[in-house]
TrEMBL record:
It is an enzyme of class 3 (hydrolase). Gene3D superfamilies: Rhodanese-like domain (3.40.250.10), Ribonuclease Z/Hydroxyacylglutathione hydrolase-like (3.60.15.10). InterPro entries: Metallo-B-lactamas (IPR001279), Mito_Persulfide_Diox (IPR051682), POD-like_MBL-fold (IPR044528), Rhodanese-like_dom (IPR001763), Rhodanese-like_dom_sf (IPR036873), RibonucZ/Hydroxyglut_hydro (IPR036866), Thiosulphate_STrfase_CS (IPR001307). PROSITE patterns: RHODANESE_1, RHODANESE_3. Its EC number is 3.-.-.-. GO terms for molecular function: hydrolase activity; metal ion binding; sulfur dioxygenase activity; thiosulfate-cyanide sulfurtransferase activity. Keywords: Hydrolase, Metal-binding. This is Beta-lactamase hydrolase-like protein. It comes from the Bacteria.
């Protein structure tokens, strides 16, 4: 009997797959994440042994778990593209047309460059119908309502990859039957493609009719569209590309995380290359935090935003609500390559307060108060830290756009003595931005809890960029 499990990794919107045949007992995993226990657990649930691990391409947005999974289950082979690949670790090469037999089903590799030069898609068909694929595992080449971006390897390769993506979409995918199911490598929220749809799967027929990337039959207009629509490149993507190409570290367990009492925590925080990450809620952080800490609350989005804020070689000191959260927080961090930890604050902020150590606060301004300050405080600068597409739909009148993902560099030109208030959609990203500014020495920064959602719910006025410049 054929078995399929789809694994959605929240926060990075990554999709991986376990495919198996219970009669033969063999299973394959496509694009595993680095905390790989889930694949072993699912295989055991169905009485399967993982024998094949496939990488569709060199990933930029998450730490690959292929080597860790092979080590964990024993006897499994990692399969890597040989077509235009830059892998620098051992694996079995895969070229276009290679077939892998699992008993009741077969997987066939198809070279689908564009997002990356080496990208592979895997067709699946029943063994007694080898010429009729019923689904494709598309990795980052074709998404629901979108397609993989071709600009992650730099401007020098963007034009070539955009052309390759065009031929992949129009000369391969659009020639498949309408009934073929599309199982992509990402869902909505990933920056590996523009405006990826909410559904986790689709069909070739549906994409043929609705996907904007499949409506540009001439190469020139397609290339303009695909480059113009790409969202900003996240800070950590180039770093993770290098790590995944070289071969990610084999992780048989989460990294060691020493418990540090407040005084020792304070000393370690002053060491070069160490940064304090406070994963408590925005209101808890605002009420009192370790000086210099960056606030990224411990929701699933922590994975992606930690990638934006910290380099992979930086050592992280954690502040958490409860020590019971540590395992979950670490898992979120290692998924985007953050595997170096200097420790965590034993006893949490209560222990820090009891030890009489310095505290900093981050003022939280309700939207009602922010509206008053728009009129009465002419020295206040309101920073909208949402993404470019969000900004275009409307913003608080007079606000300036500073996307939080760009603020590591952009805030260098701002006056540290001025007054600022940051807002996003809900306050989550605004707290990241405000805490970054405070850590960089900005004197007077406030966060707006509820942010744009609260502003809109209160019925306050808004404007669009063209209105602001008219």
């Amino acid at each position: 009997m054929f078995v399929q499990e789809t694994i959605l990794t929240d926060g990075i919107a990554q999709l991986s797959y376990l495919l198996g045949d219970t009669d033969s007992g063999r299973a394959a995993v496509i694009d595993p994440r680095t905390d790989v226990e889930i694949y072993e657990q699912l295989a055991r649930k169905h009485g399967l042994s993982i024998t094949h691990i496939f990488e569709t391409h060199i990933h930029a947005d998450f730490l690959s778990g292929s080597r860790s999974l092979a080590e964990r289950v024993g006897g499994a082979q990692v399969f890597l593209s040989s077509d235009g690949a830059d892998y620098r670790f051992d694996g079995q090469g895969v070229t276009d047309g290679d077939v892998f037999d699992f008993g009741s089903f077969r997987l066939t590799a198809r070279h689908t460059p564009g997002h990356t030069p080496e990208h592979m898609t895997f067709e699946i068909c029943e063994s007694d119908r080898p010429d009729t694929p019923w689904a494709v595992f598309t990795g980052d080449s074709l998404f629901v309502g979108s397609a993989g971006r071709p600009d992650l390897l730099g401007e020098g390769q963007t034009a070539e990859l955009a052309e390759a993506l065009y031929h992949t979409l129009y000369d391969y995918f659009l020639k498949l039957d309408d009934f073929v199911t599309v199982f992509p490598g990402h869902g909505a929220g990933s920056a590996c493609g523009a405006a990826i749809g909410d559904r986790l799967q689709s069909t070739i027929g549906y994409e043929r009719r609705t996907n904007p990337f499949l409506r540009y039959p001439d190469l020139e207009s397609f290339c303009r569209f695909v480059v113009d629509e790409a969202p900003p490149v996240p800070w950590h993507y180039p770093q993770l590309k290098k790590v995944n190409a070289a071969g990610p570290e084999i992780m048989d367990r989460l990294p060691t995380l020493p418990a540090l009492p407040p005084e020792k925590f304070r000393r370690v925080a002053r060491e070069p290359g160490v940064h304090v990450l406070d994963t408590r809620s925005i209101l808890a952080f605002g009420g009192g935090h370790v000086p210099g800490a960056i606030n990224i609350a411990g929701r699933s989005e922590l994975s992606a935003w930690a990638g934006q804020m910290f380099d992979l070689d930086q050592r992280l000191l954690l502040v958490v609500d409860s020590e019971e959260d540590l395992d979950r927080i670490q898992r979120l961090l290692v998924r985007t390559g953050h595997c170096s930890f200097a420790g965590y604050l034993s006893g949490g902020m209560k222990a820090w307060e009891t030890a009489g150590l310095p505290l900093e606060t981050l003022e939280q301004i309700p939207v009602q108060r922010l509206r008053e300050l728009q009129v009465t405080d002419q020295g206040l600068t309101i920073l909208d830290v949402r993404g470019p597409d969000e900004w275009k739909t409307g913003h608080i009148p007079g606000a300036k756009h500073y996307f939080v993902a760009d603020m590591r560099e952009r805030i260098n030109g701002l006056d540290k003595e001025a007054r600022y208030a940051t807002y996003c959609a809900s306050g989550y990203r605004a707290s990241i931005a405000a805490s970054l500014m405070k850590a960089r020495g900005f004197r007077d920064v406030s966060n707006v809890p509820g942010s744009w959602s609260a502003w809109s719910a209160a019925g306050f006025a808004s404007e669009k960029p063209e209105e602001a410049t008219a």
